[in-house]
Amino acid sequence: MNNIFVIGLDKLNHRWLQRLPNASQYHFHQLLTFEQLQQGPDVPITRLIDEAEARLASFEGSIDAIVSYWDFPGTLLVPILTRRFNCPGPTLEATLKCEHKYWSRYEQAKVTDACPAFEAVNPYDDDAFEKLSLEFPYWVKPVKSFLGHLSYRIKNEADFRQAMPVIRQKIPRIGEPFNHILGLADLPEAIVAVDGYHCLAEADIWGTQGTLEGYVHDGKLHSHGVVDSICYPGTTVFSRLEYPSRLPAEVQQRVADIVETVIHHLGYEDRPFNVEFFWDQVNDKLWLLEINPRVSQSHALLFEQVDGVSNFHVPVELALGNTPTIPHRAGPAGCAAKFSVRAFRDGIVRSVPTAGQCHHVEALLPGTVVEVTVRPGDRLSALLSQDSYSYLLAEIIIGAPDQAQLLERYEQCLRLLPFVIEDIAEPVPTLEMGQHENRGANAA
Fold it and tell me: SS3 for the chain, per residue?
């Protein structure tokens, strides 16, 4: 029996882990709760590290693997803890080359033209705008954030001036604990000055968005799938994550070739990753958006429904020193998607679907999973870890024989799962909402 410690293990994802092919040989242990990870930016990161170390040090059996499928701080705790407890795992520096947005771009630019122009921004510098040479429009985002938090599309100087006070006020929540972890790593001189209180500014990139999941093992990239990211019309907010991708096979292979080059360069191998990208179909140009050093838990049931095994199989097997084997199209569904039910105006949640209504939908449509993420009384704008200007109400995973039936089933779910939101504000205002990144974090 292998003892596998999962950082942020929760009940829902524990269910998916227990359905893995070799689950009878695994004993999954919770290492920190999901709630602790959510609170991580609000408590000293040292407290989380100390508590995790104490839990591992007091364990009387073997510590065979340490994994996480959550974003910050989960992904960065993995290399810290695997190093201290002599378990297989990536180096902290290689993981940070994925997590630190500026450092990641700095390294990507050395080996691929799929990296847009970029510069570092100090939001506390009153002359920051004048120091930038990027042409409008461009994006400004903290060097560490997720779910598009504090990410703004800048179309003119007024946008920049409006975004900076918001960023200065809110960036310490993640910037401070991120700086502590940066202090544990061996950083190159070019990165030392660009700490967690800094932002990345990068040229606007566009196109059809997708995510390639995979790992590099024995010097070769293995991709277990590409997931399409489909937005609400006229926005950059994800409506659904759909698998398998409908992108041309040739485009998917080109993405894999670029990713293989970049991942080799970063030195991040024998652990899973997912890479978000854009395909500009008009110019037939590929752009990398972001590299995440983990599988996306948002994709877990999509892979299980279509291929027969969830992507959680990959980090577990790699952490044990094994080569993962994922079947192809062996699941019960022809396609699957994770839908995000969102509100685009602030308000007070007055009622949500009941547990009975959710169970009814799940029974009516086998393979469907409903997770309501708000409660009556919640003020939408006060919710943590939201993107800049939309609010997540629920996530619904659905499998179907084809895309047409998938979309029909989603519309049926919306009719059967009513929300009542008391509208208390005008629609989302002036600054454009952020690009959605790291969807595996708290949704995906």
Answer: CEEEEEECCCHHHHHHHCCCCCHHHEEEEEECCHHHHHHHHHCCHHHHHHHHHHHHHCCCCCCCEEEECCCCCHHHHHHHHHHHCCCCCCCHHHHHHHHCHHHHHHHHCCCCCCCCCEEEECCCCCCHHHHCCCCCCEEEEECCCCCCCCCEEECCHHHHHHHHHHHHHHCHHHHHHHHHHHCCCCCCHHHHCCCCCCEEEEECCCCEEEEEEEEEECCEEEEEEEEEEEECCCCCCEEEEEECCCCCHHHHHHHHHHHHHHHHHHCCCCCEEEEEEEEECCCCEEEEEEEECCCCHHHHHHHHHHHCCCCCHHHHHHHCCCCCCCCCCCCCCCEEEEEEEEECEEEEEEECCCHHHHHHHHHHCCCCEEEECCCCCCEHHHCCCCCCCCEEEEEEEEEECCHHHHHHHHHHHHHHCCCEEEEEEEECCCCECCCCCCCCCCCC
List per-residue pLDDT tens for the chain, 444 residues long. 999 999 999 988 899 899 999 999 999 999 999 888 877 566 689 999 999 999 999 999 999 999 999 999 999 999 999 999 999 889 999 999 999 999 999 999 999 999 999 999 999 999 999 999 999 999 999 999 876 778 999 999 999 999 999 999 999 999 999 999 999 999 999 999 999 999 999 999 999 999 999 998 888 899 999 999 999 888 878 899 999 999 999 999 999 999 999 999 999 988 999 999 999 999 999 999 999 999 998 999 999 999 999 999 999 999 999 999 889 999 999 999 999 999 988 899 999 999 999 999 999 999 899 999 999 999 988 887 666 668 999 999 999 999 999 999 999 999 999 999 998 855 544 455 454 443 333 334
Q: Which long-range contacts (CB under 8 A, 24 or more apart) does 374-379 make?
A: 374/349, 374/419, 375/349, 376/349, 376/350, 376/351, 376/352, 377/348, 377/349, 378/348, 378/349, 379/346, 379/347, 379/348, 379/349
* Gap between the Cα atoms of 271 and 318, Å rounded: 6
Q: Which pTM value belongs to this model? A: 0.90
